[in-house]
Amino acid sequence: MQTPKGYLTPSPPLAPASIVHGPITSRHAFLDMGNLTVVESRWTRAGRTCLPAMGFSFAAGTTDGPGAFDFFQGDTKGNGFWKLIRSFLKTPSAVQVACHAPKPILLDTGEMNLPYNWQPRIVEIGVVRIGQLVVATLPGEPTTMAGRRVKKAIYERVKEAWGEDVTVVISGLTNTYSSYIATFEEYQIQRYEGAFTIFGPYTLDAYIQELLKLTDSMLLEESNEAGSRLVSPSSSSSSPSSSSSPPSSSPLSSSPSSSSASSSSASHFANPVAESYPSTTSNSSSRSDAAAAAIDASPSSLLMQPPFHPSQEGGGSRKRGRREEGE
């Protein structure tokens, strides 16, 4: 609705509804976010997460919800008086101080465990696919840009196999609560969100890396299922020496399993990936070789892509950045 002075503009028309259809699969994992190594890739910086800690600006609150007195947003140095008060609880170790920099630590929650752990260290993540809808679950509150980067990374990874009409959404505060998830750049400023990102500056990078591992596991399983259907029932029932039958040791003869991830599927849903492959013996060898090569690839090699740099950010390109496609 638009007022006479034009303060409110008409809302854009809603997109036409679409029916969600396709396979249902999921992956879930527990992460030790207090000590997780992040490998540099297109979507992540190289670094390591930290034991939980909250910064001084956390106590300052936000612009729309101010916190305690004598605390300020954007504080990267701390306050001598409150550091003295902090020492009665726990003075952070040198390792913690270096790991969380430039955050000045107000509460060293990761090194305090009386009467129990003050904040979680083991958290849960997951990826759920319901047809063309993909839900990434996170145990915290991602900022707007953090959420955009998670969605962008997953979308780029799955769009070729699952179609460009895939929609990726974020489900925050899932299974547990581990405070905020800010971007690396937001963390450097140390306003409320960065000070409340408890696992250090590489928190978002770690979540993206591990979510992509779960996504790769789902793609690999579908690749195996599609490859196993290349051999038609008539050809597989012929002589054992038939060239179209995969050997018993072939990786296509079984689905991959992982102790850190769980999967569920609904067989009555159509599998567009499998249906896109013709069931002919002429393509069997090449498809099998491709699937075998994918299985032999290590998780790190699946993630490694040309690195990005903040200076190369720009909308509409393949480089990750603070501005992504029209922002």
Automatic annotation (TrEMBL):
Entry cofactors: Zn(2+)
Lipid metabolism in keyword set: yes
Keyword tags: Hydrolase, Lipid metabolism, Metal-binding, Sphingolipid metabolism, Zinc
Residues engaged in binding Zn(2+): E141, Y180
Region called Disordered, residue ranges: 225-327
A GO term, aspect molecular function: metal ion binding
Source organism, top-level taxon: Eukaryota
Catalytic activity as recorded in UniProt: an N-acylsphing-4-enine + H2O = sphing-4-enine + a fatty acid
Cofactor note: Binds 1 zinc ion per subunit.
Residue span(s) of domain Neutral/alkaline non-lysosomal ceramidase N-terminal: 19-209
Listed Low complexity bias regions: 232-267, 274-301
Pfam families in alphabetical order: Ceramidase_alk
A GO CC term assigned to this protein in UniProt: extracellular region
GO biological process: ceramide catabolic process; long-chain fatty acid biosynthetic process; sphingosine biosynthetic process
Assigned EC number: 3.5.1.23
Recorded family membership: Belongs to the neutral ceramidase family.
Protein name: Neutral ceramidase
Species assigned in the record: Polytomella parva
